[in-house]
Description:
By secondary structure, the protein is of the alpha+beta class. It is 30% helix and 27% strand. Helix 4 (128-140) packs across helix 5.
Amino acid sequence: MLYELRVELKGVKPPIWRTIQVPGSITLHGLHGVLQVAMGWSDTHLYLFHVDGEEYGEPDTDWDDEVRSSKKAEDVIAAGGTSFSYEYDLGDSWTHEITLERTLETEGKAKPRCIGGARACPPEDCGGPWGYKRFLQAIGTPRHREHEAMLEWIGGDFDPEHFDAKLADSVLSRR
């Protein structure tokens, strides 16, 4: 079974979204890895999945979370979880709404894919949705007092409208 999921970053307008396909057997920890690639995050922060009042996070054998993070997508969806959330960077609190769009039958072993999306992922550590809005104002306004500092921080260029689904899919295919 293959699940087609729409992933939308909450609190950001216009919407930043991705459409991914993952095998039902993927664990939530594996899904975290797919989301990192598809969204464009760098996997330098903790994460949590919020599913029906339960939280599933980074595997930690000291805290017996290994079993919790090994929960499979098919188990979440079979339990009525056609919509759940993924929070990345618990300080900036980037919340992603994940919604099942459709299920597909597969022959053989299916690999995760990114088949669509819109807009660039915000830069890591920019301060969550509020900080991203401020960042965009600064880089988009040459007379803004933080314009030069933000451009230097980001490395000189950032196009908030750019997203390359084929590139994200190519990276996923090599995993």
